[in-house]
Amino acid sequence: MDGVIEMGGNRYMTDPQGHLVPVDLVKPQDALEDQTVRKIIRYADDLSAQIARFRGHTFDDVASFVSILAERYGATRGGAKGNTTLTSFDGCLKVVVQVQDVLTFGPELQVAKAIVDECVAAWSDGAPAEVRALVQHAFQTDREGRINRAALFSLRRLKIEREPWPRAMAALDDAIRVVGSREYVRFYRRANARAKWEPITIDLASAA
Pfam families of this UniProt entry (predicted)? Predict the structure, then answer.
């Protein structure tokens, strides 16, 4: 993976247009940049593979433990949707496995938005400022076109009985589609059983 192709006794590097450029015509800084990038990517590929294996082994180990409990006691150790927390005997190490639903929204979402807009416009005494702000925020999409799910769920928690708000919330409920689930695993440690849990980070952005 050194980026050099040998052909007919000559050595070439491929440019972004797919052209073969003789190595002696490549600027030294470009060759050095290429070497640096390829070195880093080799390490990144190896680390990515290790993390993938570690993730798989972790889920297998947790699943094996839960299976042993189920066989021994006839019950599983975990919460709703397969969420599981395992803690070391001294209470200083913790592994948390979380299962989260993957959601999407059906066409009822547009119906809900229309009814919510109708509510805000029709109430003669006006909707509270915080409700108007939440409504505006909830139905906005980000640059990837994704709906703000947290704001939508905040709308559902508002205790408004005034029509047609309940119909809007019914449409919003019907719009929610569960299309799958994702498993997440997190790791924590603390100095003693009374100390605060500290996450063990495995992503580059958060690593110390």
Answer: DUF3164 (PF11363)
Task: Note the pTM of the prediction, 2 decimals.
Answer: 0.61
Residue appearing with tokens 């996450």: 199
- Cα distances (Å, whole numbers) of residue 95 to 24, 132, 203, 208: 54, 41, 16, 20
Q: Which of 187, 186, 191 is CA-nearest to residue 92? A: 191
Amino acid at 7: M
Give 166-189 pLDDT, tens digit per residue.
888 888 888 888 888 788 899 999
Q: Could you give the angle at the alpha carbon of 146 between the alpha carbons of 142 and 147, nearest 5°?
A: 95
CB atoms within 10 A of CB 105: 17
What the block records as the tokens of 180 is 């799958």
| Contact yes or no for 11/4 (Cβ under 8 A) | yes
